[in-house]
Design goal:
- Helices cover about 35% and strands about 10% of the residues.
- The chain contains eleven helices and nine strands.
- α1 runs parallel beside α10 and α7 runs parallel beside α10.
């Protein structure tokens, strides 16, 4: 066997705590407890991602979850995603309205004009619209050509401005970032980000362009992950969300306020045979006096 070279395990940022300077290592027991409005024990953040998928994605450096799967043209999956934006999301908006809950809804910039009636319906429902990059096949990563990622973020900001929107919340396509993404989005006026989930409360991220609040969005409660990738039943998925809420509320005397977050993907949760589980979750959260239903901006503001 050949020995490893001496510099193999050397890393210039390695030190006690975290190997990066974005945030400090901090166990949950050592943080100052967060207090939510009204003394609520739990902030519930519902995220409804509105995506535009190409029929011929390049998939570089990875295919977005939900990207086409079969040889071109993959019309079956393409039309299922389109169904989500035409039909499924309106079921979700109706269910949110029926319970009085408001969601954070990241939207791919290319949909602002392509699906303008949908954008208007989201605004009329009182939900928070977040920037979700240009589209699902524009994945942010450190292998992009110099300047390309900042151009994409700038084009996203411009598209929202043309649509009369000025979001402060950012979510990257596939929640994938480069080493520079946080700095770049901060430079373009986004101060809340949904890509990170290292804690159960918002974490202040330091960048040369200013601070960004990482409001945690749980991939472990993501509907697409649990229902499609892990093939769980709708009742199992709903039970997991409600069990997470129950446990986090019980932890409030020790841990303070925490964030329960999960995604409702229109082409997944918006299917008619899954709406019974969606309604069960929303009605349970809306009827729980310990739960504060809030958008990402509201949660970031309350935690600061």
């Amino acid at each position: 066997m050949m020995p490893l070279p001496d510099d193999y395990l050397k890393y210039e940022h390695r030190r006690h705590g975290m190997d990066q300077s974005l945030y400090d290592w901090r166990p949950s027991g050592e943080r100052k407890p967060v207090t939510w409005p009204g003394g609520k024990a739990l902030a519930a953040m519902i995220v409804v991602p509105v995506e535009w998928h190409r029929l011929n994605p390049q998939g570089k450096p990875l295919r977005h979850p939900g990207a086409m799967m079969t040889p071109w043209p993959d019309l079956r999956h393409y039309t299922t995603r389109d169904y989500g934006n035409r039909v499924g999301i309106f079921r979700l908006l109706d269910a949110l309205a029926a319970t009085g809950l408001h969601a954070t809804i990241p939207v791919n910039a290319v949909l602002l004009e392509r699906a303008r009636p949908l954008v208007e319906a989201i605004k009329e429902g009182g939900h928070e619209i977040a920037a979700y990059g240009l589209e699902a096949d524009r994945i942010h990563w450190s292998g992009l050509e110099p300047g390309e990622e900042e151009r994409w973020i700038g084009e996203t900001r411009e598209a929202f401005a043309r649509a009369g929107l000025n979001p402060r919340v950012w979510m990257s396509p596939a929640r994938q970032q480069s080493f520079d993404t946080l700095k770049l989005i901060a430079g373009h006026g986004f101060d809340v980000c949904l890509d990170w989930e290292q804690d159960s409360v918002p974490v202040a991220m330091r960048t040369p362009s200013g601070e960004v609040s990482a409001v945690p969005l749980s991939n472990e409660l993501d509907d697409r992950t649990l229902l499609i990738d892990r093939r769980q039943s709708e009742d199992e998925w709903a039970d997991q969300i409600l069990e997470a809420a129950r446990l986090m509320i019980s932890e409030a005397p020790r841990a303070g306020g925490q964030v329960l977050s999960f995604s409702l993907t229109p082409y997944v949760s918006g299917q008619p045979f899954r709406m019974h589980a969606v309604r069960r979750v929303l009605e349970a959260l809306a009827g729980n006096d310990d739960v504060w239903s809030a958008t990402a901006s509201q949660i970031a503001g309350a935690a600061s």
